[in-house]
Specification:
The chain is of the alpha/beta class and about 210 residues long. About 40% of the residues lie in helices and about 20% in strands. Helix 5 crosses helix 7 (about 160-170). The longest helix is centred in the middle third of the chain and has 11 residues, at about 65-75. It contains eight helices and seven strands; from the N terminus they run H-H-E-H-E-H-E-E-H-E-H-H-E-H-E. The protein has helices at about 5-15, 20-25, 45-55, 65-75, 110-120, 140-150, 160-170, 195-205; strands at about 35-40, 60-65, 80-85, 95-105, 125-135, 175-180, 205-210. The chain binds S-adenosylmethionine. S-adenosylmethionine binds near residues 14, 41, 64, 104 and 109.
C-alpha cells in the first residue's frame, strides 16, 4: 500500500484542493444540512470541515489508509462533530449515511467492486455517493502520468469512466454524471499549463452521482 508521501505534502495538497471542494459543494443536488456524511479517502479531513462550516451537516465520518493524515484530521477537527479512522475501507460499524463523497480516490482503489459494495452497505436507501474523478483514461495526458507513477504509488490499471460506472452498477447503484460547477482555477504546481488545466477541470474531472435506490 502506498501512503501519501509526507505530512507536509498532504498539507499542501489539502490547501490546493479548496477550489475543487467549493465546486463539489456547488454541484451536489441535495441539501446536506442536518445529514450524516461519509468522506472516503478523506486525507486530513479538510472537505469534512468545509461541510461543517458551509453546509451545516449534522456529523461527518472520514477514513483514509494514511495514519499520519488521520492523526492530523483528528487534531484539526477540534470540537467539530467529526470522526476519523485510519483504514482502507468503510469500518464495519459505520453506516446510516445520507451521503458519501470521495475526491480523487477511485483511481487508487484496486478492487472497485468491493469499494462499491462497502459504500452501498453504508448508505441509507435513497442515499447517494458523489465521487469526483479526473484521473481516468479519458483525461488527456493521464496515461503518461499513470505509466510514470504506477509502481511508486502502487496504482491499479488506469480505469475508464465506463469501467468505474460498471463496477457501481454491479453493486446496485443508479449512476448519473455531471461536470463540476467550477469557478476560477488557480495556477499551481498541480496545474502548470493554464489552458490545459482549464480543460482538465472543466471537461475531464467529473462528478459521478451513485445513488442507492430506495
Ligand atoms: C489525491 S488524495 C485525495 C485526498 C482528499 N480526498 C482530498 O480531496 O484532498 C488520495 C487519498 O486517497 C487515499 N487512499 C489511498 N488508497 C485508498 C483506499 N483504498 N481507500 C480510500 N482512500 C485511499 C490516500 O491516502 C489519499 O489521502
Amino acid at each position: 500500500m502506498a501512503y501519501w508521501q509526507s505530512a507536509a505534502e498532504d498539507a499542501a495538497m489539502q490547501e490546493e484542493h479548496g477550489f475543487i471542494w467549493d465546486a463539489m459543494l456547488e454541484t451536489v443536488d441535495i441539501d446536506l444540512a442536518g445529514r450524516r456524511v461519509l468522506d472516503a479517502g478523506c486525507n486530513r479531513g479538510g472537505f469534512l470541515r468545509l461541510l461543517c462550516a458551509r453546509a451545516g451537516i449534522a456529523a461527518g465520518w472520514g477514513y483514509d489508509p494514511a495514519p499520519g493524515a488521520i492523526a492530523d484530521a483528528r487534531r484539526l477537527a477540534g470540537d467539530l462533530p467529526l470522526t476519523f479512522d485510519a483504514t482502507e475501507t468503510v469500518p464495519s460499524h459505520w453506516g446510516g449515511f445520507d451521503a458519501s463523497f470521495s475526491h480523487e480516490v477511485l483511481y487508487l482503489i484496486h478492487d472497485l467492486g468491493a469499494h462499491a459494495a462497502a459504500i452501498h452497505r453504508a448508505l441509507v436507501p435513497g442515499g447517494a455517493y458523489y465521487a469526483v474523478m479526473g484521473v481516468h483514461a479519458g483525461s488527456p495526458g493521464m496515461a503518461d502520468w499513470h505509466a510514470e507513477n504506477v509502481e511508486r504509488l502502487h496504482l491499479p490499471p488506469l480505469y475508464t469512466l465506463d469501467e468505474v460506472i460498471a463496477a457501481f452498477i454491479g453493486a446496485g447503484f443508479e449512476v448519473a454524471a455531471s461536470r463540476l460547477r467550477m469557478g476560477f482555477v488557480p495556477v499551481s504546481p498541480h496545474a502548470p499549463s493554464f489552458p490545459s488545466s482549464l480543460e482538465y477541470y472543466y471537461e475531464h474531472k467529473v462528478m459521478l452521482r451513485l445513488a442507492r435506490p430506495r
